[in-house]
UniProtKB/TrEMBL annotation:
It comes from the Eukaryota. PANTHER family: 1-PHOSPHATIDYLINOSITOL 4,5-BISPHOSPHATE PHOSPHODIESTERASE BETA-1, PHOSPHOINOSITIDE-SPECIFIC PHOSPHOLIPASE C FAMILY PROTEIN. The lineage of its organism: Eukaryota, Metazoa, Chordata, Craniata, Vertebrata. It is an enzyme of class 3 (hydrolase). This is 1-phosphatidylinositol 4,5-bisphosphate phosphodiesterase. SUPFAM superfamilies: C-terminal domain of PLC-beta, C2 domain (Calcium/lipid-binding domain, CaLB), EF-hand, PH domain-like, PLC-like phosphodiesterases.
Length: 1121
């Protein structure tokens, strides 16, 4: 049943989807059918998130007693609309809960299928209907007549007669395509056919991407081309002859095999195991707003729509609720925008966070809630509603520490998790540092201590770092006119909110130097676009700090109309969270949607390698090529358009290139306006060439169609790395980035590696050596005719005739012998290598071996002598020295304290002793004599007992002091042990990996150099055996390279195995060394103290019922040992 809240009606309907999955149909009892394009569906919901009837009458009509399940679980809400603000809800109710759930899941799966949003031309034509054809009546009737179909006003066409083949025939007569015939004939078609060889050459030369590796992606063979032709050519007799007609050729051009974007680019194809800071992350600013920044309504639905669009970072401006329930709200502070409930937003995020993408979501809190009670509510809502999806405790592998610069986890490791970005309070406890050793018992390994999630004790943080933390907490949010409208600083985070924050902790940006020095990857800074532009302009290279830390850019406050800045500016600098106003679909937002449509619409795009490696420097304003990146040359020719408008107007095409400043060209091409033809306009103008695209990985091509008055028709944004070269149809999209069914542009695109003009002749010669050699031969003959002396004509003609009549065995004619005087008149740049043609060619294997340079892996002994090892050893020595010095200082302080206490105890003991000597007792039987006293002086038993107890107290105190000293020295040894273990790892593993990587890179460079050398030698033989020189030598060199690489990899494995075998030995030696030190530690401490005090004074006190000897030293009791 379909129900409408506005009309208060309930209509029984039948809901269906066509077999192709294009449209959703619902038919009522009167057989009236309505339909919806499934690609326009944004969400399909059931359960709590569905729309429920507001009126009681509707609820009664829907809540039929014989239906199974609760009414909420049987409801199905389909969300559709042109953008994220103007949303329409279609409400249905199923008979059973399972039916509603199944419909919701399947519809969302169809609607979110990326291939359905990137249809090929054939699929688009299948979706189209006849009434959408933009043509006059007479033209349509003529096309129907050519197809032998009824064309009168009163006639109708039986559905079974309008087959796909008839439909294509109708389109070909309605919209003649002379430009296709021209393309067909340019491929060498003799008459109306192309042969298998011609089709093979067309696909491999025109349609294949030259940037692909020929080994991994080899050119197609004629047998594969024959199979391809069988799919699209209907004439079987021609297929047996290996021929394809223009109709079959046209079917191939509109097929899946010829799409402008490879399907694998749409799937999640990028590596997701790098740290978060190595990705561009789809981000939203003031997500809750539906219109301007100063007035308008806030909407919970915006969070759903933004998440469904692939956004992975949303913003929540939280304010104190002033209702009796004291519920926190979300709104734009100090403006006239409406408020929405914080709890409802959290519920909406929980529902839609991972429907489109499984990768982590970041909630950017701007917390102005100054009520601890309401902040506690916010924290509780996050915990209870998100559940296990909320990441509270850091991952064990990635602790949040104040030192060592731990990297952030990867999106793969945080899959399905929600991260909170909020101010975090820092209240270090002074007692924590004193208890650190007690919290880590002696049997806990250093690795376990290293892996703990607790932060480093504040006692180990430098004063500068503490001051920086205080500055971060005091970072007020009083914004200028550029930075926003809120005039109030963020509230101090309570403990409940602080515990939710881990890997995304906001901090005030002071300078690039300070950020690099602190090196805390979990801290991130936010920049208003004007401040970010200032930093980008003044310090473009210093932006490398974001290779380890996240940065967020947001629009300036003066954009009260919710317009957007150009995100390409900050993608060029490597900024990860470039936040935009999603409610405004302008050109900036269209670029953003185009950027994140790829990689499975995951909301994450991997940054180029040089933006991830700390050893690489990059200036976004540089015009030279980037180290390690091959620049591209892009050529685009606009040939024609199809069904661009349903009006009788002229249309034109514009072309833009977005990327680095040096790559960006706005309105690089504008075609002429067609003459009142928007169905099949043909331009066929000169192509536009983007000679040098410095950074193609961040460059995008935009093709846009306009009516002659400037009205926007449609556009398409395609990243340069995803473009397939060749003859392609590009389906257009509207300004909301929704696919248009019929409008398309037919183009020819060339994308290849950039070659400077100085090397253009060389590349041309290498790519087509036969043509080049023939050209040299022709030039030599022409010049020879001009330089011949009188009387030499006959002798020169005879060899020429002989040469022509005596071809070599391989079918190639030898090049003529040219006199030196002739060669001097030709520029040297025209030749590859000039060699003597009479010399015999060297053997292929000898030629390959002559350029090979053998390379051996560095041995373990060589690695130990590496300069990095030496430098690391010096650094390790300084670290060990610092550790020992720090603990010696603590030891001396403790010994000084013990000595003071011991002197006090000794003085007290002496006074007591003298007092007892002066005490006299006469005539008592219960007395004892002290051996060290004179025989005539006695003391009472009670006083002696008290004296003994005092001695025991002193003994216990000295034992405690000994234990403290023991623990201090243990802490020192643990620190030394940990440092040595880390040193072993750094000295062996890290340096080895770096050395091996350098060797592999050097091997690649050597191979490239060898290839160049080999090509030079091969050129000497090219005039005699050009085919052999271009095939066999190359394969032999690659075989040799593969063998050397295998051998080098095996050697690397052996070295790594030696390291693995040696690491336990070194660690065992360290364990044994410090175990021996631990065993000798008590005696060492005793000797140390005895040497400092010097002299022993003992007193033996016999008691009545037993004998006990107590050796009393000034600072030690031997019974303590």
């Amino acid at each position: 049943m379909k129900w409408d809240d506005d009309l208060s009606t309930v209509t029984p309907i039948t809901l269906t989807v066509d077999p192709h999955g294009y449209f959703l149909h619902w038919t009522d009892q009167n057989k009236e059918t309505e339909f919806l394009d499934i690609t326009h569906i944004k969400d399909a919901r059931t359960g709590r998130s569905t729309k429920t009837p507001k009126e009681a009458k509707l609820r009664e009509l829907l809540d039929v007693g014989n239906l199974v399940g609760r009414i909420e679980n049987r409801l199905l809400t389909i969300v559709t609309g042109p953008d994220m603000v103007n949303i329409t809800y279609l409400n249905f109710m199923a008979l059973q809960e399972e039916e509603a759930t199944e419909w919701a899941e399947e519809l969302f799966s169809l609607a979110s299928n990326l291939l359905s949003h990137n249809m090929n031309r054939e699929t688009s034509l299948e979706k189209a209907i006849v009434r959408m054809f933009s043509a006059d009546k007479k033209r349509v009737e003529t096309a129907l007549e050519h197809c032998n179909l009824p064309f009168g006003r009163s006639n109708s066409i039986p559905l079974e007669d309008f087959t796909p083949d008839v439909y294509r025939s109708f389109l070909s007569h309605l919209c003649p395509r002379p430009e296709l015939s021209s393309v067909f004939s340019q491929q060498g078609a003799k008459g109306a056919y192309l042969s298998v060889d011609q089709m093979t050459e067309f696909i491999n030369e025109r349609q294949r991407d030259p940037r692909l590796n020929e080994i991994l992606y080899p050119p197609l063979r004629p047998s594969q081309i024959q199979t391809l032709m069988e799919k699209y050519e209907l004439n079987q007799s021609l297929l047996k002859q290996g021929l394809i007609t223009l109709e079959g050729f046209s079917r191939y051009l509109v097929s899946d095999e010829n799409g402008v974007i490879p399907p694998e680019k749409l799937d999640q194809s990028e590596d997701m195991t790098f740290p978060l800071s190595h990705y561009f992350i789809n981000s939203s600013h003031n997500t809750y707003l539906t219109a301007g920044q100063l007035a308008g309504s806030s909407s919970v639905e915006m969070y759903r729509q933004v998440m469904l669009a692939g956004c992975r970072c949303v913003e929540l401006d939280c304010w104190k609720g002033r209702t009796a329930e004291e519920e926190p709200v979300i709104t734009h502070g100090f403006t006239m925008t409406s408020e929405i409930c914080f709890k409802e937003v959290i519920e909406a995020i929980a529902e839609c966070a991972f429907k489109t993408s499984p990768f982590p979501v970041i909630l950017s809190f701007e917390n102005h809630v100054d009520s601890p009670k309401q902040q506690a509510k916010m924290a509780e809502y996050c915990r209870s509603i998100f559940g296990d999806a909320l990441l509270i405790d850091p991952l064990e592998k990635y602790p949040v520490r104040f030192y060592l610069g731990y990297p952030l986890p990867s999106p793969q490791e945080l899959m399905g998790k929600i991260l909170i970005k909020n101010k975090k309070s820092h209240k270090p406890s002074a007692a924590h540092g004193n208890k650190q050793l007690a919290e880590h018992p002696a049997n806990q390994s250093a690795a376990e201590e290293h892996a703990t999630d607790e932060p480093l004790s504040p006692s180990n943080i430098t004063a500068g770092e503490i001051e920086a933390e205080d500055d971060d907490d005091d970072d007020d949010c009083k914004k200028t006119s550029d930075e926003g409208t809120a005039e109030e600083r963020e509230a101090v985070a309570t403990e409940e909110m602080s515990t939710l924050v881990n890997y995304v902790q906001p901090t005030k940006f002071n300078s690039f130097e300070a950020s690099k020095k602190v090196n805390r990857s979990y801290q991130m800074s936010s920049f208003v676009e004007t401040k970010a532009l200032e930093h980008l302009t003044k310090s473009p290279v210093e932006f490398i700090y974001i290779k380890q830390q996240l940065s967020r850019i947001y629009p300036k406050g003066t954009r009260v109309d919710s317009s957007n800045y150009m995100p390409q500016l900050f993608w060029n600098a490597g900024c990860q969270l470039v936040a935009l106003n999603f409610q405004t679909i302008d050109l900036s937002m269209q670029l953003n949607l185009g950027m994140y449509e790829y990689n499975g619409k995951s909301g994450y795009r991997l940054k180029p390698e040089f933006m991830r490696r700390p050893d690489k420097h990059f200036d976004p304003f540089a015009e030279s090529t980037v180290d390690g990146i091959v620049a591209n040359t892009v050529k685009v020719k606009i040939i024609s358009g199809q069904f661009l408008s349903d009006k009788k107007v002229g249309v034109y095409i514009e072309l833009d290139m977005f990327g680095l400043p040096v790559d960006t060209r706005r309105k690089a091409l504008k075609t002429k306006t067609s003459q009142s033809n928007a169905i099949n306009p043909v331009w066929d103008e000169e192509p536009i060439i983007f000679k040098k695209v410095v950074l193609p990985t961040l460059a995008s091509l935009r093709i846009a169609a306009f009516e002659e008055g400037g009205k926007f028709i449609g556009h398409r944004i395609i990243p340069v790395p995803a473009i397939r070269p060749g003859y392609r149809y590009i389906g257009l999209r509207n300004e909301k980035n929704q696919s248009l069914i019929l409008p398309a542009v037919f183009v020819y695109i060339e994308v290849k590696d950039y070659v400077p003009d100085t090397f253009a002749d060389v590349i041309e010669a290498l790519s087509n050596p036969i043509r080049y050699v023939n050209l040299l031969e022709q030039r030599s003959q022409q010049l020879a005719a001009l330089t011949l002396e009188e009387g030499e004509e006959e002798t020169s003609k005879e060899p020429k005739d002989n040469l022509r009549s005596a071809p070599l065995e391989n079918g190639l004619s030898p090049s003529p012998t040219v006199t030196p005087r002739t060669l001097t008149n030709i520029p040297q740049s025209c030749f590859l290598v000039v060699s003597e043609p009479t010399k015999p060619a060297a053997k292929t294997e000898d030629m390959v071996q002559s350029v090979l340079i053998d390379m051996e892996a560095a041995t373990l002994e060589e690695l130990r002598q590496h300069k990095l090892i030496v430098r690391e050893q010096k650094r390790h020595y300084r670290e060990m020295k610092d550790v020992v010095k720090r603990h010696q200082k603590k030891t001396l302080e403790m010994v000084k304290e013990q000595t003071t206490k011991d002197n006090q105890a000794q003085n007290q003991h002496t006074r007591r002793h003298n007092t007892l000597l002066k005490t006299k007792q006469h005539g008592r039987s219960e007395c004892v004599c002290v051996l060290s006293l004179t025989p005539d002086k006695c003391v009472s038993k009670a006083e002696l007992k008290q004296f003994d107890e005092d001695g025991e107290d002193q003994l216990r105190e000295l034992r405690e002091q000994q234990q403290q000293l023991l623990e201090l020295r243990q802490e020192q040894y643990y620190s030394e042990k940990y440092l040595k273990r880390e040193h072993i790892k750094q000295k062996l593993t890290t340096v080895t990996e770096e050395s091996q990587n350098n060797q592999m890179k050097k091997l690649k460079d050597i191979c490239d150099k060898e290839k160049k050398d080999l090509k030079k030698k091969m050129d000497k033989r090219r005039t005699e055996k050009i085919k052999e020189a271009m095939t066999k030598e190359k394969h032999l060199l690659e075989d040799a390279q593969a063998k050397r690489q295998e051998r080098l990899v095996e050697q690397h494995k052996d070295i790594q195995q030696q390291i693995l075998d040696e690491k336990p030995k070194l660690q065992g030696a360290v364990e044994a060394e410090y175990q021996e030190k631990f065993c000798l530690l008590p005696g060492e401490i005793q000797d140390f103290l005895l040497n400092r005090k010097g002299g022993v004074k003992s007193h033996v006190v016999p008691q009545g019922d037993g004998k006990r000897a107590i050796l009393l030293n000034k600072c030690w009791f031997t019974t303590a040992l």
